[in-house]
Amino acid sequence: MKLTFWGASRQVTGSMYLLELEDDYKILIDCGTDMERELDFTQPVTGYQPFFPFEAAQVNLVLLTHAHIDHSGNIPMLYREGYEGQVLCTPPTAELAEILLYDAASLNYKKLKQAEGDSKKKKKKMDRLMVKGDLYLQKDVEDTMSNFVTIQFNRRFKVKDGVWITFVPAGHLLGAAHIILETLDNGVKKSICFSGDIGRDNYPLLLDPSSELPETDYVVCETTYGARLHEDKISPEDALAKVIQRACIDLPGRLIIPAFSVGRTQALLYTLNKLYTERGFKPIKVFSDSPLAYASTKIYQKNVRQLNKAAQEFYEENDGLFDFENLQYIQSEKASRAISNYTEPCIIISASGMVSGGRVEQHIAANINNVYCTILLVGFASEGTLGWKLMHGQKTLRIKDVELPVLATVEKIDVFSGHGDQNDLLKFVGKHKPERVKKVFLVHGEEESMVTFKGILEEKGYSNVEMPEKGQSYEL
Q1: Confidence class of residue 46 from pLDDT cuts 50, 70 and 90?
Q2: Are strands 2-7 and 16-20 parallel, antiparallel or unpaired?
């Protein structure tokens, strides 16, 4: 069989791997949005341009590790290009993917409406959108979700004669899975483990990555944090409590936390609830400013039995995970803008986590020169984003064509990062003995991170470690 790497190759986003079996049965593992895709916008749109580098109609099955858009975001495009099969994933992944894909479709619709018109500027904007190509809409998502089929964790599922898959808890996000794929062809057994995104032990709400991974012939491992270790060694409660004390009580001022709507926001709200419930922390006004975060929070609450033991016990004792005094969910853009009029100490949790668009960008623009404001960065930010610039101490920020001085206090903690660090990745690969595994493929990371992690694996005896280029194929 043949494995081709069509995404997240020597970069972080756009996970997409095509496995072709001996009988020409094709399985696509993940189909994510490539946030780093480079396009030539100088070339005019001339007729139909296929979106994928392979025939979508020839794919037989899609397996989805988890719901994040860099793993799921182009599934509607796959159906638009002619795919007619199913998407297999865990039940929470299907629920979260649905709200994420509908949100992406809504953003696409807004972009198209803003580009309508006869002016040169409007036509140029529309041309750029057409070149980009991934403008699926709500009907496309509706058609897509009707083909999702869910499978519980740790259930070995027969896809067809000679092909089985198992979804194994990966941590990282509600429903996130490692995928174990086994084949039997002409009496020859082969197996592959796709890591998806690897979580970390003792993360708020989530199950730990499984310690029961079977050994496989081949391993596809993400490397987001392949070159680094998490710095903070204290608990999420202690880390967040210290920042709140400095930013909202000692000062007192406002605390802005850029956070992804799905996953990170729920971890923060749950931790705040624990501070107020278990430590007697004085409730401070908390604005959760993201409709998508509100929707995903309800899915987390609904799937409490898919969460870790501590979260389940907290739920039983408090009849909920996230609702606490002074928490306000913000839905409308008007209500979001009105937060600026709130003059008491407060905490604003808003997307996007990298400060690359979204409502949080407006909150930061309104407060970046406020010495009574603290901006707390709690996760990874890609180079070039506003979050990355804040994290690296840039003294001014350009937001909406306005250069603003950074007078607010900027802090960062990494206890809320949903990605496992170098040690967690080594623990994952270490489930497969060097003398047993035939190849380890490194994906989903910046090249520097991959090179570092490859060197460490080789020192530990893994002699066949590959860093595939985009489009590179391997016979397994």
Answers
A1: low
A2: antiparallel
